[in-house]
Write a structure and sequence with these properties.
alpha/beta, Glutathione S-transferase Yfyf (Class Pi), Chain A, domain 2, Rossmann fold, 2 domains, four-stranded parallel β-sheet, 10% strand
Length: 301
């Protein structure tokens, strides 16, 4: 039996051959070392984040999240639900809280799910958590540090938290303006945190990436410039949307502004897998567009 078990909501971006499939590879490797068992919610569905942007309405999105909550409770009763995607975590937690405060929305959700043969019972005590919360609040830096066999020595890393894993919820006890948990995690893994990095909670403009790309890319440019200004060789983030946007648009930003950005953007779980002794494949480093060469070198030792 694993030391810790959670009901797991992977989200669409972590599916095979999708934008964050390498994130899932590294999470599985990381959890194996930490003796954490993730019980995937059977037949889970999308959190509905995209229909929120498309004015899809509150009820459809709430029903989609409530369906996952009901399936999780049926499969793994009493377990906290953990998500690796910031949007999935935020949407599920937000829906859960609204269902506890809005009786009309709750009744409409219950009736909608009944038509699909699913019984939803609201459980106020249910916890919906991001994987970063589990790492910091349940496992802790000391235990994480005890598994480090290949310290990430000599690598300067900027911790980019983003907005969805910071507001309105976030890691317990952390500042909204200057959360430190990624800095502490980077240090625990033996690397050098760029603690003066001043864009760690700036939005990457994910919601504007297609509708207003110039605005989105201006946001990303600020995030990258700050990392370079403070000497970072790598950026680490807990959000798949942030990872994708800050990585894939660097070429477009370079062409538009005459810059020469080429900085790897990784997940915390990739750093942890390598520091725990995993190889590049186990860390999902083959899925990064801008190769994290220093991580690959450490992984190959």
């Amino acid at each position: 039996m694993a030391t810790r078990e959670y009901s797991f909501y992977p989200g669409c971006s972590s599916e095979k051959k999708t934008s964050a499939s390498n994130y899932m590879v590294s999470v599985e490797s990381m959890c194996k070392t930490l003796d954490v068992k993730l019980n995937e919610i059977p037949d889970w569905n999308c959190c509905g984040a995209s229909i929120g942007y498309a004015e899809g309405g509150e009820l459809p999105r709430t029903v989609m999240n409530a369906r996952n909550l009901a399936l999780a409770e049926e499969d793994s009763p009493g377990q906290d639900i953990v998500a690796t995607c910031a949007a999935c975590w935020l949407g599920t937690r937000e829906s859960h809280e609204r269902l506890g405060k809005d009786e009309t929305l709750l009744n409409d959700t219950i009736e909608s799910l009944k038509e699909a043969g699913i019984n939803y019972e609201h459980k106020p005590e249910k916890n919906i958590r991001h994987m970063a919360e589990v790492l910091i609040e349940d496992i802790g830096y000391d235990e994480i540090g005890s598994h480090v066999s290949k310290p990430l020595e000599g690598v300067k890393i900027a911790g980019y938290v983003g907005c969805q894993t910071n507001r309105p919820f976030g890691i317990h006890g952390e500042s909204y303006e200057n959360p430190k948990y990624l800095d502490k995690l980077v240090e625990t893994l033996g690397a050098d945190p760029v603690e003066d990095y001043d864009q760690k909670v700036t939005c990457c403009g994910g919601a504007l990436a297609f509708s207003e790309p110039e605005k989105s890319q201006n946001q990303i440019k600020k995030i990258l410039e700050s990392a370079y200004d403070f000497g970072a060789e790598m950026i680490v983030t807990p959000c798949p949307v942030c990872q994708m946007n800050v990585e894939v648009y660097q070429d477009q930003i370079n062409k538009a502004h005459g810059t020469k950005f080429h900085i790897p953007v990784t997940y915390y779980s990739q750093l942890m897998t390598v520091a725990f002794g995993g190889n590049a494949k186990e860390a999902g480093l083959n899925g990064n567009i801008i190769k994290a060469k220093k991580l690959e070198e450490i992984a190959a030792k």
